[in-house]
UniProtKB/TrEMBL annotation:
<feature type="domain" description="SHSP">
    <location>
        <begin position="29"/>
        <end position="139"/>
    </location>
</feature>
<keyword id="KW-0346">Stress response</keyword>
<protein>
    <submittedName>
        <fullName>Hsp20 family protein</fullName>
    </submittedName>
</protein>
<dbReference type="InterPro" id="IPR037913">
    <property type="entry name" value="ACD_IbpA/B"/>
</dbReference>
<comment type="similarity">
    <text>Belongs to the small heat shock protein (HSP20) family.</text>
</comment>
<dbReference type="InterPro" id="IPR008978">
    <property type="entry name" value="HSP20-like_chaperone"/>
</dbReference>
<dbReference type="InterPro" id="IPR002068">
    <property type="entry name" value="A-crystallin/Hsp20_dom"/>
</dbReference>
<dbReference type="Pfam" id="PF00011">
    <property type="entry name" value="HSP20"/>
</dbReference>
Length: 146
């Protein structure tokens, strides 16, 4: 019997608590083939940060969009003509990277520093869905019920 490694799915699922949601997030096709490289960091119980290496891109060439539970990061560079590279090791191609976000996760900010794009996320669980402490004591029944 084979064991299934879900590790690659964890990279694309931010704030998910259930395995089925992780599996669903793994079905999102990503055409960028690993470019640009990125990290996902948990900075607290409800805070996350995605850091992407976007060397060579100016802030104006990057576009971040959150559409429901999908975060889309695009980078577009104008075509440079007239250059004759002997060796080109710096990837300067356009990209689009998609991240499936869990319910109640929203982008709270983005900064760019030393060729790294930092996208900060927060999970805000509505008050009605948060766990609440129930004290043991007298029960308040509605009149007519016993």
């Amino acid at each position: 019997m084979r064991n299934v490694d879900f590790t690659p799915l964890y990279r694309h699922a931010i704030g998910f608590d259930r395995l089925f949601n992780l599996m669903e997030a793994g079905n999102v096709k990503n055409s960028s083939g690993g470019y640009p490289p990125y990290n996902i960091e948990q900075r607290g119980d409800n805070y996350y940060r995605i850091t992407m290496a976007v060397a060579g891109f100016a802030q104006e060439q990057l576009d971040l969009t959150q559409n429901e539970n999908m975060l889309i990061v695009k980078g577009e560079r104008p075509a440079e003509e007239g250059k004759n590279y002997i060796y080109q090791g710096i990837a300067e191609r356009n990209f689009e990277r998609k991240f499936q976000l869990a319910d109640y996760v929203k982008v709270i900010g983005a900064t760019m520093e030393n060729g790294l794009l930092h996208v900060d996320l927060e999970r805000e669980i509505p008050e009605a869905m948060q766990p609440r402490k129930i004290s043991i004591g007298e029960s308040k029944l509605i009149e007519g019920q016993e």
